[in-house]
Specification:
By secondary structure, the protein is α/β, with parallel strands linked by helices. Helices cover 33% and strands 13% of the residues.
């Protein structure tokens, strides 16, 4: 199959045909590092995966859009131009510009640039043009403010699972999601996610953006989705009020004229990358007296083009195109056993001095209500005192030990930002024809180098090291080598994930039964992996029944301009 639509129609068609060209190109297997495409020849390299010892063909740094720099900053992704010389795909492209996370200073790319719309492809060494393989696309997480594709070596999954693996970059933070509520915004963004918009299926990205997600597309455009620790929710789309607040803040920080939005946007395009990141860095903007990290500064909005409506509103209408498409997908969704641990250990040290505690030792009861729950309710529930009292009562107790109370604080972060949103999406999905599976990842293996004495369970993102060899790509993080038991867990995850990609049924050492409305099966992935029923019913019922849903923007007030 040759690559089509290099400059014609949509850029997303080019991305997909890159994948299929690498799978089906008419080439000699003796030199699979060289492939021909309609956009031009591509040369990759042959390496040996350190985990499996098998050869893998890698095609690194393939551009899938014009560099979004200069006048193209903030704009829609443009189709890449054809090339005549052989494209050198032996080195990774730059990561997208981003701020360095204070509590993870080593978790950063070696090279950053606005010119970052690159993808990487990993192909098993025994590929045959007459045998089609599943294509699995990894979209890294990081709250839409951090992350890069190069840190995820797809060779392990590719060689062990016999699949094609693709990792991709997308624009982050203000460069991918700048929005103003004004007609001047007719040329930008939300295009962090639009860079990931394949073959016109915007609904797919509605369900995945903002988190760790694995996609599989087949030629008939039906798909399977693995949503790891994140799904669409009320926290990851901005309201008009929030958009206006951010616009005013950005104008003050940059001295760009807010009285003329056309001049404002032109001014922003002229600002140096580092200065713009400094002005919008969510970590430096955090207050010192309250935990306010539940929403990045720049995230998607309902724009009437890529997002026709808030996905949650669309999903509630079972006859909507979004709901019908979502229901047609096969879905695996789940989270780790202590999602809040990383945020607690990363953010709370900035706040502990004002409240007189040491997060490594404990998180006091008074801080949980005053410093965590109160700002959360103020921001998302209009300071509803009844909601605040219910949540405080649920997550605090005068009779629990300090270790137990600290663990409850971490659980509040996990439940309010991850757990119940994922359970709700599983409930939505199970009523449709697509197959539904739930998991909980419980194996403890810290990747950030910190684990408080009170902390129990697996932190956010800890399952990723069992799929990608992070200790090789991020040596400064001191990730330890696998024990034999941990290696078995990694092998099982890759087997479950790739078999699901291949046929829609996750197969592995333990039978994984589908999630349903009665038994509510989930696979607890740990040293001893077991099939269980009804994950944390008390917590899920509390958030789904006792606490009202966060209100979405009114229908008449929800469409804003997301293009500068």
């Amino acid at each position: 199959m040759v690559m089509k639509r290099c400059q014609k129609n949509k850029m997303n068609a080019f991305i997909f045909t890159v994948f299929m060209t690498l799978v089906c190109a008419d080439i000699s297997l003796a030199d699979f590092t060289l492939v021909n495409s309609e956009c031009g020849p591509i040369k990759g390299l042959k390496t040996q995966n350190k985990q499996t010892g098998k050869d893998v063909y890698e095609f690194r740094g393939i551009p899938f859009g014009k560099p979004p720099i200069g006048p193209l900053r903030f704009t829609k992704p443009q189709p890449v131009d054809k090339w005549t010389d052989t494209l050198d795909a032996t080195e990774f492209g730059a990561a997208c510009s981003q701020s360095v996370t204070p509590w993870m200073p080593d978790f950063k790319p070696s090279k950053m640039s606005e010119d970052c719309l690159f993808l990487n492809v990993y192909v098993p060494n025994h590929v045959d043009k007459n045998r089609k393989l599943p294509v699995m696309v990894w979209i890294y997480g990081g709250g839409l403010v951090m992350g890069f594709s190069n840190q995820y070596d797809g060779g392990w999954i590719a060689t062990q699972g016999d699949v094609i693996v693709v990792t991709i970059n997308y624009r982050l933070d203000v460069f991918g999601f700048l929005t103003v509520d004004h007609p001047a915004s007719k040329e930008t963004t939300v295009y962090g996610t639009k860079s990931l918009h394949y073959n016109g299926y915007t609904t797919t990205l509605h369900l995945l953006e903002g988190t760790l997600s694995l996609l599989l597309y087949s030629e008939n455009q039906q798909g399977r989705v693995i949503a790891q620790s994140g799904v669409v929710n009320e926290l990851n789309m901005l309201t008009k009020k929030q958009i206006n607040e951010r616009t005013i803040h950005l104008a003050k920080k940059t001295s760009c004229p807010i009285n003329d939005m056309y001049k404002f946007t032109d001014c922003l395009r002229d600002i140096d990358v580092s200065e713009l990141l400094k002005a919008t860095d969510m970590f430096s903007l955090m207050p010192d007296d309250r935990l306010e990290v539940f929403q990045p500064q720049y995230i998607p909005v309902v724009d009437g083009e890529l997002y026709l409506d808030h996905p949650l509103r669309s999903l509630k209408d079972e006859k909507s195109d979004v709901a019908q498409f979502y229901g047609s997908l096969d879905l695996i969704a789940g989270f780790t056993s202590n999602e809040g641990l990383m945020m607690a250990m990363g953010i709370l040290p900035k706040l502990q001095e004002n409240f007189g505690f040491n997060v490594s030792e404990s998180i006091p009861l008074k801080f949980i209500c005053k410093g965590m729950i109160e700002p959360f309710v103020e921001k998302f529930y209009n300071n509803d005192s009844d909601v605040k009292d219910k949540i405080c009562k649920f997550y605090t107790s005068e009779t629990t030990s300090t270790d137990e109370q600290s663990q409850k604080a971490s659980e509040f972060i996990a439940d309010s930002c991850f757990g119940y949103f994922i359970k709700r999406m599983l409930d939505y999905h199970v009523s449709f024809e697509g197959r539904t599976y739930q998991y909980l990842f419980s194996k403890e293996k810290p990747i950030m180098g910190f684990a408080p004495k009170w902390g129990k369970g697996s932190g956010h993102g800890e399952e990723i090291q069992f799929m990608f060899d992070l200790k090789v790509l991020l040596p400064s993080m001191n990730i330890t080598a696998f024990t034999p038991e941990e290696q078995q867990i990694a092998n099982a995850i890759i087997e479950y994930w790739t078999s699901f990609a291949r046929k829609g049924v996750p197969e592995g050492p333990v039978e994984w039964k589908p999630f349903d409305t009665t038994s509510k099966y989930y696979l607890d992935i740990d040293t001893i992996t077991t099939l269980k029923k009804d994950l944390r019913p008390e917590v899920m019922n509390f958030w789904l029944k006792d606490i009202p849903s966060i209100e979405l923007d009114p229908v008449d007030d929800r469409k804003v301009h997301d293009e500068l």
